[in-house]
Structure to design on (237 residues):
């Protein structure tokens, strides 16, 4: 979970766990009565058909191996989309889980972005709307004690399936979000200078289109198993 140089903060890593993330997002101010995170067990059709539609965002956890890093030079950052895609740089060690969730929630469909007045999501979005420079957003996040406490509480929650370990542990996996903004799918990775466009998409095809991108990551590391996929999907009663 590499990050841009910042103030030297380091957090415990967030687990790729739908129950944990739903609880965390609810505490941030997202309405999980409407949409919730769920596991996507495979990129194959049988697994995608299990997910309610339309999907609002996708988050992928993947291993930061040399094979993955070698392809980053080919990324074409959509720097001209700063006013429409909400994007933040990552300057805090191991904060990629929270960064990925913010990219997912703040770029979700407008109907899902009515955050309660006074909630953390509402207040941070108000102070850091899309046009604010991604590094300036990151600096504000670094100075925000409330999110540090909320993230820490999530990593120590009973919902975790593993022990959060030590702050000195070397973490070799990384979260990115895949979102639909104005009919284009963007990969939002706080390690990069801006969002990376991956072509046209729609609310009903975002999951399938995201999994095509996930497959590209998987194909670079055919022996790797440290991939997980989560979808922000309509809640089933």
């Amino acid at each position: 979970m590499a990050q841009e140089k910042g103030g030297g903060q380091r957090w415990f890593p967030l687990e790729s766990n739908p129950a944990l993330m739903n609880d965390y997002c609810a505490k941030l101010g997202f309405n999980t009565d409407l949409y919730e995170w769920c596991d996507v067990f495979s990129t194959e059709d049988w697994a995608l058909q299990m997910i309610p539609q339309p999907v609002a965002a996708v988050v992928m956890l993947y291993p930061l191996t040399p094979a993955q890093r070698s392809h980053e030079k080919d990324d074409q950052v959509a720097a001209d989309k700063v006013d429409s895609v909400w994007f933040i740089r990552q300057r805090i060690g191991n904060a990629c889980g929270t960064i990925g969730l913010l990219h997912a929630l703040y770029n979700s469909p407008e109907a899902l972005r009515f955050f309660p007045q006074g909630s953390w999501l509402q207040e941070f979005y108000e102070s850091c709307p899309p046009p604010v420079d991604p590094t300036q957003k990151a600096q504000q996040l670094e100075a925000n004690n409330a999110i540090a406490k909320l993230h820490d509480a999530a990593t120590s929650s009973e919902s975790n399936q593993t022990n959060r370990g030590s702050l000195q542990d070397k973490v070799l996996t990384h979260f990115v979000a895949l979102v639909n903004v104005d009919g284009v799918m963007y990969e939002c990775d706080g390690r990069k200078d801006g969002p990376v466009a991956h072509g046209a998409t729609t609310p009903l095809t975002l999951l399938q289109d995201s999994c095509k991108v996930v497959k590209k990551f998987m194909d670079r590391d055919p022996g790797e198993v440290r991939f997980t996929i989560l979808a922000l999907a309509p809640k089933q009663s």
